[in-house]
Specification:
6 strands, 3 helices, two-stranded antiparallel sheet, alpha+beta, two-stranded antiparallel ribbon
Length: about 180
């Protein structure tokens, strides 16, 4: 068996391989998808890697993005958080990103009409994917993300009604003055 060599070509690898630049001083935590072959989780009986939750290490997870959008007049910002997440952690992430989108996503014309509704539809699809998963147990020493209350039970989520009411008023004014 050949001795592994350092990537710089300066001789064999010695010491802890996790001390390499860009890596932490500790080995990856249980459930860390980067630790498994291919970076996707633990191998399944069929030989394919099953994703594990990146937040809690739960073994039943799906790899899907949650998105948030911020629209402020002519400026916009897009955010996303990649999975894989288990059911509880995925729902927590989707709720947080959707809540943020409902509060600050509507304040630009393009955001109001196109981008924010698309982001909300994307998060609805993500919500349905995560909700369809079976509950999983977090890895030892880790916990699920806090899901908090559902989005529509959070008072600031209704801030979205202000720009929506304004948009309805603008459309009705345009229609009533064009006839």
């Amino acid at each position: 068996m050949a001795t592994p060599h350092h990537p710089t070509g300066n001789g064999p690898v010695t010491g802890n391989p996790y001390d390499a630049p860009g890596r932490g001083a500790h080995p990856p935590a249980w459930g860390d998808t980067a630790a498994a072959p291919g970076g996707h989780g633990h191998p399944s009986p069929a030989g394919q890697a099953q994703p594990v939750c990146r937040a809690c290490g739960g073994r039943t997870a799906v790899d899907f993005k949650a998105r948030a959008h911020t629209g402020i007049l002519i400026m916009m910002r897009f955010e996303h958080l990649d999975g894989p997440f288990c059911r509880a952690c995925g729902l927590a992430v989707v709720r947080q990103m959707t809540y943020r989108t409902l509060i600050v996503g509507w304040w630009g014309p393009l955001s109001l009409v196109i981008l924010n509704p698309l982001t909300l539809v994307w998060n609805l699809v993500a919500h349905l994917k995560y909700r369809a998963l079976a509950p999983s147990t977090p890895a030892p020493g880790r916990t699920h993300l806090d899901t908090g209350p559902p989005v529509l039970r959070r008072p600031l989520a209704y801030v979205a009604l202000i720009p929506l009411a304004w948009a309805v008023w603008v459309v009705t004014q345009i229609v009533s003055h064009s006839t």
